[in-house]
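To whoever is on call:

I kicked off a structure prediction for a single chain this morning and the downstream step that reads the tokens threw a length-mismatch warning. I double-checked the sequence; it's 297 residues and nothing unusual in it as far as I can see. Pasting both halves so you can look.
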Amino acid sequence: MVFLLHGKKFSKEIGTQIIEFISDLNKKKFTVLSTEFFYKQIKKFLSEDNNKIIKPISNIENYKKRIDYLICFGGDGTILNAATLVKNTEIPIVGINTGRLGFLATISRHNLANLISKLISEKYRLSSRAVLNIDSQNTIIDTPFALNEISVCSKENTSMINIKVMLNNKYLNTYWADGLIISTPTGSTGYSLSCGGPIVMPESKNFIITPIAPHNLNVRPLIVSDDNIITLEIVDNSTHKFLLSMDSRNQYIKNSTPIIIKKAEHSIKLVEIESINYSKTLREKLLWGLDTRNNEV
């Protein structure tokens, strides 16, 4: 089996655990690759004896048919970054939570010893997560997809903006707000939730349209089927540039530039081990079970 490791900065304690994990993979004669960024972080924990058990690669394209799993150490942001690496290869992502909240990175770093056996015996399920595809006729968009959400807002001033929204070329509404979020079910626990959007189960085949601080209080978040094509257009004469954000990757766009959003042809595969499911993650991360009036199962 071939494992690709990816992650961001981590503490000495976590680095030691990762080294033990790499050593266990090596003992089982598995091939261990890593992204260049991850290798720079882990290199200081490697001794001369085990420096050769992990191989850094600069481009996943040359290995995409060989890699069985991408092991991601970090939080949800690290997994969003990993999604830009796997793209449409459908390499399963295994999220090891070394951060805090972790709706996507749900596997505890303290379970690394048991993780390898579960992956070998395939005692897990793959959760297929919908991805947003973003297109614009007048603007070249770098990495034009998002696993969580896309948002538009003004960055030239603090005034509200007018965002015209079309569903399948039919007029929906013009939102007068600080901005607008189009979220996948995966992203429903992110930016959209903090703006009053609903929590949507990951595989429910919906998108969420959530205004950011709308002027009219009767304008509420809206759930639509993910087979809709959503077109956004900033119709505002007072501002010339707007910020398009795709999972925190930012790009400026010009006024009156149509942005076309639809479900991407590929999905992102997340590994969920048997003892963890989304309902349990919601209870633990949102602290629902702390209410003593609830009878926990």
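Update from on-call: the warning came from a stale cache, not from the record. Cleared it. Sanity check on the structure: The chain has a mean pLDDT of 88.
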